[in-house]
From TrEMBL:
Keywords: Membrane, Transmembrane, Transmembrane helix. InterPro entries: DUF1420. The keyword Membrane applies. This is DUF1420 domain-containing protein. The keyword Amino-acid biosynthesis does not apply. The chain crosses the membrane at residues 16-35, 55-72, 78-95, 110-130, 182-202, 209-227, 262-294, 300-322, 360-387, 399-415, 451-475.
Length: 617
């Protein structure tokens, strides 16, 4: 079978790429619905909020099956074809039933109409092509590498690839059947799931507070960044938020069988979120501890331990074993570090990950105020003030839950990034807790203070709605036709113009290295990452090791912007020179033109041809 490279070679022509993605997601909803009804039919029927978790439950089951297959390469392509085929069949069958992904009600009011408008616009931006910079760097790049290799990649020089997990495998599943939108549609599914929890948990469909909080969530500005992206972050947050609500249910459930099912589902949701992205280890630790606290009574401790051990063995153990084998780390390091094993540049890369921030403001101001109008998609917005309305007696009665949320925030500040998206989870959990505390607080809900808060939320809603309309205009036409997709990609996908110029320029067996972060996703040739360079370039001995790697892989061509660089002594012929431009999705950031060149690399001269004298300049 011929090995394919480049996103364009994996996707069906528009609009079929988007249509396939929609049917796959609806098929996933059908699977989740079936198994939820199977596990807890009466409980499912009695709780409207659970009916919004069908796709998330489907993601839990799907990820549990396909991730081990991808890790160990068990007939991966055949497995993907079979699973996609089943999902397409289930999706078509589900469409034939009376089916609404987002239930709405005959009695409409202005808030209901606004909510419907938000869902419609979020769905449209999720249907756009892959243009997000992080997605093109490694979330799609790893998915393509997985399909090309027939197994999950082991990455020596590609540092960001080492962070990948089951989310990239789900992206690969969509690409295997031609849908580049599958990843962003899963993000949209996460949006639906969280909305269901916030609006309907402990409240009726007619609840004015529930409707308002549903709108508050949908107007959270950071969703503008998360939904139209193949970066797997929003649906894992839906997994952990679902787990948080199940913990609340464990505390109040009277049926022991239901308690066991709730606890098992909670641990499974948390483990799968951890396999998606390492940062969810905090959710696993904090919520897992809370779940164990509420479930483990003296007579149930052994059973609770057994359920936990079984979930870890089934869902987490394969990933840990694979990581230990791939990167030679020990079990402790593999669990506690996103980058197990020893490799040059590790500490600097870890420092970069921990210190990264998308705001010039310090926390918590960065949760509320963007750098600029174009940075609105980096904040949580005015909703951060809602937990201040919580009933004080309720907080005292639920001290363990609030302690868990506070612990999560503190640990994130100490160990992780201060970017707003890493605080979306506790933000959602606090909204749910505060809502429960206000169910019988009619005086507060009708107070002038709460009315003023509502007005501010509606102002934020207008800004986010306007931004969504801009996003739909910029991205969604790319799902309609090939010509429109090319137009959208050229304007918003960094690196697309560069690699479009290089298509068919080099021999089919060329092996390239490029400074573009989109190389692994967009290049139509076998490629290797230059990801290592920023983290070792000050150390000659470390740089030599990666240059030896390039020599061993027999890299044939280099693609760099014009200007002097350390490889000049390694060039053969300069075979192409051209101009391209940067590209991004922010209409406030201009695209900047620059020159680039393609040179033959005399790899046999590495590493000595490299100019080490310029390393520290």
């Amino acid at each position: 079978m011929e090995v394919k490279y480049g996103l364009d070679n994996f996707i069906a022509d528009p609009p079929f790429s988007a249509i396939i993605g929609i049917i796959l997601v609806v098929g996933l909803e059908s699977v989740g619905r079936f198994f939820q009804r199977f596990f807890w039919f009466e409980y499912y029927s009695e709780n409207r909020w659970l009916q919004y978790q069908n796709i998330v439950f489907g993601i839990l089951l799907l990820s549990s099956v396909i991730f081990p297959i991808a890790l160990f390469g068990f007939y991966l392509n055949y497995a993907f074809d079979f699973i996609c085929g089943l999902l397409l069949v289930f999706g078509v069958m589900r469409f034939k039933q009376k089916f609404t992904l987002i239930p709405f009600y005959k009695k409409k009011d202005i808030i209901e109409v606004i909510i419907l408008a938000f869902f419609f616009l979020y769905a449209l931006v999720a249907l756009g092509p892959v243009t997000n910079a992080d997605s093109l760097h490694y979330h799609i790049g790893v998915a393509i590498e997985t399909l090309s290799l027939g197994h999950f990649p082991i990455c020596e020089e590609w540092f960001h690839c080492r962070l990948a997990g089951s989310g990239e495998v789900l992206n690969a599943l969509g690409l295997a059947f031609g849908s580049e939108q599958f990843g962003s549609l899963l993000q949209f599914a996460g949006l639906v799931s969280i909305y269901g929890l916030i609006r309907f948990y402990r409240s009726s469909a007619e609840s004015e507070l529930g409707k308002f909080l549903g709108l508050l969530f949908l107007t959270t500005p950071i969703l503008l960044f998360l939904v139209p992206s193949s970066k797997p972050q929003l649906y894992p947050i839906a997994l952990t938020s679902f787990a948080f609500v199940l913990i609340l249910e464990i505390e109040h459930a009277k049926n022991e069988k239901i308690k066991d099912l709730l606890y098992g589902a909670t641990i499974a949701l948390l483990i799968v979120s951890f396999t998606v992205k390492f940062s969810f280890i905090l959710s696993l630790a904090v919520l897992g501890s809370l779940a164990f606290y509420f479930r483990s009574e003296r007579r149930t401790v052994i059973k609770t331990f057994s359920i936990t051990a079984f979930a870890i063995l089934l869902l987490l153990f394969p990933f840990l074993i694979w990581k230990i084998g791939a990167y030679s780390g020990n079990i402790r390091e593999t669990i506690l570090s996103p980058l197990p094993g020893a490799f040059y540049g590790r500490e600097k890369f870890l420092g970069f990950l921990r210190s990264y921030s998308d705001s010039i403001f310090t926390w918590p101001v960065s949760l509320l105020i963007p750098n600029s109008l174009g940075g609105i998609s980096t904040i949580l917005g005015v909703g951060v003030f809602f937990p201040l309305f919580a009933n004080k007696d309720f907080i005292l009665r639920n001290f363990p839950k609030y302690s868990g949320v506070i612990s999560f925030v503190v640990l994130t500040l100490l160990l992780g990034q201060s970017s707003s998206r890493f605080f979306l989870e506790p933000f959602l959990w606090l909204i749910i807790l505060t809502k429960i505390s206000l169910i019988n607080e009619n005086n507060l809900i009708n107070s002038k203070r709460f009315l003023a808060f509502k007005i501010v939320v509606f102002i934020q809603a207008c800004l986010v709605l306007a931004s969504l309309i801009v996003g739909v205009y910029a991205l969604t036409p790319g799902s309609i036709s090939l010509a429109q997709r090319a137009k959208v990609m050229l304007k918003t996908a960094d690196g697309y113009d560069l690699f479009l110029q290089l298509k068919d320029l080099l021999p089919k067996n060329a092996k390239i290295v490029s400074s573009s972060l989109s190389t692994k996703s967009l290049a139509t040739y076998s490629s290797y990452s230059f990801d290592w360079n920023p983290y070792v370039r000050d150390e000659e001995s470390q740089t030599r090791e990666y240059l030896k790697f390039m020599k061993d892989k027999k890299i044939t061509h280099l693609i760099f912007p014009d200007g002097k660089n350390n490889f000049e002594g390694c060039y053969g012929n300069i075979i192409f020179e051209g101009k391209t431009h940067s590209a991004n999705r922010n209409p406030f950031n201009p695209n900047i033109e620059y020159s680039f060149f393609v040179a033959e690399l005399r790899y046999e001269l590495l590493p000595d041809c490299y100019d080490f004298s310029r390393l520290k300049k």
